[in-house]
Amino acid sequence: MAKKESISEGTRLSGRGRKKSLEEMLPADLGRKPPQARELEEAVLGALMLEKDAYSIVSEILKPECFYEKAHEKIYAAIVDLALNQRPVDMLTVTEQLKKRGELDEVGGPFYISQLTGKVASSAHIEYHARIIAQKYLARELISFTAMIQGKAFDETIDVDDLMQEAEGKLFEISQRNVKKDVTQINPVIKEAREMLEKAANQKEGLSGLRTGFDGLDKITSGWQNSDLIIIAARPAMGKTAFVLSMAKNMAVNFNTPVALFSLEMSNVQLVNRLIVNVCEIPGDKIKSGRLESYEWEQLDFKIKELYDAPIYVDDTPSLSVFELRTKARRLVREHGIKCIIIDYLQLMNASGMNFGSREQEVSTISRSLKGLAKELNIPIIALSQLNRGVEARQGAEGKRPQLADLRESGAIEQDADMVCFIHRPEYYKITEDERGNSLIGLAEIIIAKHRNGAVGDVRLRFKSEFAKFMNIEEDVPMREFASTMNEGSPLPPISSPGADFLSQSNNEVPF
Questions:
Q1: Alpha-carbon gap, residue 484 to 107, rounded angstroms
Q2: At what angle do helices 322-336 and 359-377 cross, to 10 degrees?
Q3: pLDDT tens for each residue of 119-176
Q4: Least packed by Cβ within 10 Å: which of 21, 30, 234, 287?
């Protein structure tokens, strides 16, 4: 109290050299009374000690720190202790619990506890009152958060980009602590499930999700499902980026499905160059150097038309944070109707602005956030992931096949994902034949190791390394057969997408 009087006295003083008072230095807004509801806090605490089932009503709404009055916070903490130990909550037991905690005198003694019970008649409106208390707490949290950000914004030694990352992280923490979803009665959920079933039945292929263009994969998964987090993992050089680019091209060009691709490793131009190599089937070194033959320029001009106006949206923000991703993803869904998000790759993301004891905890937060975002936007999110070196250390053909334990940096990735797929190319490990003597050259396996809502299994695809392209095995017609059919004037074999392969009309040779 003396301190407050000295401040007031300092304010009244005048004359040169006088320092500004604390009240003069603080913004006017900080003189306001923090949001609080003392009377409601008293009513809720009193009701909790009168009605035996009252705590079960407010337990998911209120935490001890939600109470503005310190004494009320301690009383509620004592009530929580009693409830967790399945002991009755009333005036006497709360008083005894506070005595054990050494806090009875701090809250006003037994007399104050008895006063609380006398200020409420019943717990009829306890839930409504509890929600108001929780809202007041959230308002105080936001005031504290904005004051902290404001103070740091005035500090010229702090990088603004770092401050924005920190602000996003803190705001995300506040929102996650306070977001609650109400329980839904089953009837509307049954209706939604039936609508999805009817939608799948009306499609010729019987797929309820988004088609990837890889028939075997679509058959097992029924297409990528809304709200699913799909992890596609592999060791370096297995073709993770090539796989998702082939898939994104199929989805956007063949099926007109809007796709967003967040590339943390490559720039937009590098990514589009990979797409051009994939679609035009011109070797990457030629695309990079620009040393194309005349027929390859014609081939480029003809096939690149497939990519024009394709609903593919690319973002190459390096070291993308989960909070930036949430903001951008919401806008993409709202403005462009994005149906699928692809992230290349998960371990390059960060959760800056939040404190972690280890990188494993950070990766856990990232994977959990991606799953939450998939549910919020109700679209599939596909994240690429690295595998650890355990694969390289194992021997034999079976030893080289990836396992769930090989997921790098965090077991939470496996836990949060609805589906985990591995890309395995035996040829990379000099394994050119299977146990039956069949050639494995140019073959890739998509191993579905975890499928929360369906079967697991393996899907074989053709991989053309020179074009960084994955495709269905039946689509890969040998080039010599193409050339011979052209020479004989017979019709071309069927293809899966518009834009037939451009064949050179000279020297009877296939130009790619």
A1: 93
A2: 20
A3: 776 667 888 888 899 889 988 888 888 888 888 888 888 888 778 877 877 777 777 6
A4: 30
CA–chain centroid gap for 337, Å, is 18
Q: Are strands 259-263 and 340-344 parallel, antiparallel or unpaired?
A: parallel
Kindly state the tokens that stand for 114: 């008895």
| β-strand pairing of 419-424 with 229-234 | parallel
Active-site positions read 265
Report for 113-127, 336-350, 353-367: range of highest mean pLDDT: 336-350
pLDDT tens by residue, 419-464: 989 888 888 878 877 777 777 888 888 889 888 888 888 888 888 8
Is 402:447 a contact under the CB 8 Å cutoff?
Answer: yes
Strand order in the sheet with 381-386: 312-315, 259-263, 340-344, 381-386, 229-234, 419-424, 443-451, 457-464, 469-471
Cis-peptide, bond into residue 345, ω within 30° of zero: yes
Residues 349/337, Cβ–Cβ less than 8 Å? no
What residue has token string 């320092």? 19
Q: Is 67 left (phi over 0), alpha (psi -120 to 50) or beta?
A: beta
Quote the tokens at residue 80: 């929580």
Burial environment of residue 330 by CB neighbours within 10 A (0 to 12, 13 to 18, 19 or more): middle
Predicted pLDDT at 380: 93
Strands (E), 353-494: 381-386, 419-424, 443-451, 457-464, 469-471
Q: Characterize 307-323 residue by residue with b for buried, 16 or more Cβ atoms within 10 angstroms of its Cβ, and e for exposed.
A: beebbbbbbbeeebbbb
User: Which of 199, 223, 205, 260 shows the shortest CA–CA distance to 383?
Assistant: 260
Tell me how far apart the alpha carbons of residues 428 and 441 are, in angstroms, rounded to a whole number.
9
Is 96 within 8 Å of 109 (Cβ atoms)? no
To the question of pTM greater than 0.70 for the whole model, the response is: no
- pLDDT for 355-376, tens place per residue? 666 777 778 888 888 888 898 8
d(CA 368, CA 412): 8
d(CA 97, CA 82): 8
